């Protein structure tokens, strides 16, 4: 894959750089990123697209000049929901945007999941098992919760936050970054979104949970039940900057029956 001289970096992470390059978005991963992970993300996008979710289409997966892998998707002209929310902070417009955000999440969860999407229970169990330095009693509690996880049939983005929602120029919403999608329970997916709000936008976490609970007709207790499990899963990804916060959420496992 060749990138043009006019490419513009818009996001930089520890394992990738994301560019706008003409009519496409290109994620260029570090050379240490396994090819299988990149192809898996492309496959996830293809599957949820075929299921009917509004997603920027996959265009290409190939290597760049230095041998690292890159994934390109179509460019959707618009802005992130996060940027709109930041601009509307403290106004009625923020509430309207949050409602749109929740409606979109519920719409995605209401889409029947392709059978070949990774099973949520299997994935979460594996991640919890790899989480380092957990108190034995907490790990046991988390494993028991995961073992009791019922089969789910919803598309669960599992990283659904306002930065991963694009608001197109005509107002249509698109969801991006499908690395962690699973077939599973909406309440576990909502627990991950709740954690992300608490991490990055704590003043709006409870408003999100209240709105999701009412609109999805899901008791808040069901979402809270999965918070420690999803926090432990995040810890297994090595998020050093958020480690203290995530461990505080995992420790809640001892306080909930």
Can you describe what's shown?
The chain has 257 residues and is of the alpha+beta class. The chain folds into two domains: 8-74, Phosphorylase Kinase, domain 1 (2-Layer Sandwich), CATH 3.30.200; 78-255, Alpha-Beta Complex (Aminoglycoside 3'-phosphotransferase, Chain: A, domain 2). It is 45% helix and 18% strand. It contains nine helices and ten strands. β1 (8-13) and β2 (16-21) form a beta hairpin. The model has no long low-confidence stretch (mean pLDDT 94).
What is the compact description of this entry?
This protein has helices spanning 35-51, 81-87, 92-109, 120-130, 136-147, 186-200, 205-216, 220-235, 243-250, and strands spanning 8-13, 16-21, 24-29, 58-63, 69-74, 78-80, 154-156, 165-168, 173-175, 182-184.
